[in-house]
Amino acid sequence: MTIDVDAVELETTTSFGEGKETLEQQLSGFPIYKQYNKLYQEFIAQNKETLSIKERIAPNLTGSTLSGPEKIEYRSPTLYFISDTYFASQDEIALETALENNNDDDDANLNSANYSITFLYLGDKVSGHHGIVHGGLLATLLDEITCRLAFLNFPSKKGFTANLNIDYKKPTVVDSWVCIKCTTLKKQGRKCWVRGEVYVIDPDTESLAPSQERCVGKVLIIEPKVDYQ
């Protein structure tokens, strides 16, 4: 897939019908949402480049075709935690080994952050088996949202998926909130590897626990040698 995240600025919050306000209110009341917003405010106080990020919803598949009542009913603006260090240099990045030894408390490490957080509400019409979110939809969301993070680590802010591997751990039920966390693992030249994790949201906790993880993917994104439209 290809997305130009720097092309045009559009609102990335998507919600439909009379439930819009209710869904926003639900999300804003979750401890985990409050926690990540608190971390984000602390982060941007020291890392100003993140505030310059502009995106558009593309492609039409997740932004239009799959969005609507009982489908992707709500999509929050993505919270980017990308240290100014990466925006300034965009040299090679090797975070994978360090991340394997880290725990969730390291989310607040402002000097090495290179990840994103997105919240979505998935309705009944995105099921495969009855009551279960289609695995292909989760793969598509992982593909798109990991790419958005990878592109921001390229000088051109453009790229395409070369490889996507996903391990499905537990079914994701429909009519539920999910959080997709994407983390840059490594960047070498025009190649960038990103891990994407889908979690179901526990409305009573402020952290993402392993028991909430539903699938995890590793994506290789490549920056094109020449510009494209």
UniProtKB/TrEMBL annotation:
InterPro entries: HotDog_dom_sf, PTE-AB_protein, Thioestr_dom
Residues covered by the Thioesterase domain: 130-203
Gene3D superfamilies according to UniProt: Hotdog Thioesterase
Pfam families for the chain: 4HBT
PANTHER family in the record: UPF0644 PROTEIN PB2B4.06
Protein name: Thioesterase domain-containing protein
